[in-house]
Amino acid sequence: MVTLDDVRAAAVRIRGVAVRTPLIEAGPLALKCENLQPMGAFKVRGACNMIAQLPPEARAAGVITYSSGNHGQAVALVAQRFGIPAVVVMPETAPPVKVEGVRRYGAEVIFAGTTTLHRKARAEEEAARRRLTMVPPFDDPWVIAGQGTVGLEILEQRPNVTDVFVPAGGGGLISGVSVAIKGMRSGVRIVGVEPEGAAKMSRSRAAGRPVTLERVSSIADGLLAVRPGDLTFEHVQALVDEVMTVTDDQIKAAVLWLFSEASLVAEPSGAAAVAGALARSPAAGTSVAIISGGNVDPQAYASYISQPF
Length: 309
Prior knowledge:
Blueprint: H1 4-13, E1 23-26, E2 29-33, H2 43-51, H3 56-61, E3 63-66, H4 70-82, E4 86-90, H5 96-104, E5 108-111, H6 116-130, E6 133-134, H7 141-147, H8 149-157, E7 163-167, H9 172-184, E8 189-195, H10 200-207, H11 230-239, E9 242-246, H12 248-262, H13 268-279, E10 287-291, H14 298-306
Parallel strand pairs: 2-10, 3-4, 3-6, 4-5, 7-8, 7-10, 8-9
Antiparallel strand pairs: 1-2
Helix pairs in contact: 1-7, 2-4, 2-7, 4-5, 7-9, 8-9, 9-11, 12-13, 12-14
């Protein structure tokens, strides 16, 4: 298990690459704005914490990852900052805005299939062939510790917090946030939020073990992992109070709500936790929802904010 000390060490390590994002008020909610990170999502924290610890020979050879988009952009950005080569394996269905983001930071893009398992297999093959270091998207203690720095900042910015709503994909963010918050304030309630069409964490918790879904479907492309990580599932089982699901219509409504109530741009995956919080009548002033990312296709975004739900 990742420890609070691991998260605190990560907070020092990622300074200068990841930024301390603001926590702002919007109606009954406080919003942790990870959509304002340099590459538009929280993923830069975990990627930086891992890559910063690689020995010189590993940096020289380069890094590789597999990602639907935001983790790939994070690895590409951090690799660029450290001056090392990076390869990102992405699904054939990856949003163009995220593919362009990866390439903008100088990484090589390889397309492989449509699921996490497809791109993971291709990334492992390339890593072995080229002797690259894998930077996992979520199931890694260094990555989890880096994501946990979001939790440290929430407690500093909102000491009286009672509930934190966190999007749940593969589980890296919610694992790290739970380590940080439960390690300092055990009474704070942690609620994971995942799409109804990709409820791998809910199914796994019910089964008592990680479960692989046969298919996933949601507009929240960053939360479509078909299976939680082994390490992240262990953290979620031990530390998370509840995992709930939201519909795509609720996610679209949350994207629109963030635009109209807070003038914030969020991708569907980034708005999932807000959708969950709004469905639960959050306690004014003490409930926090994490906006995990803001990398959204402009045409899709225009449709989300122009239609009432």
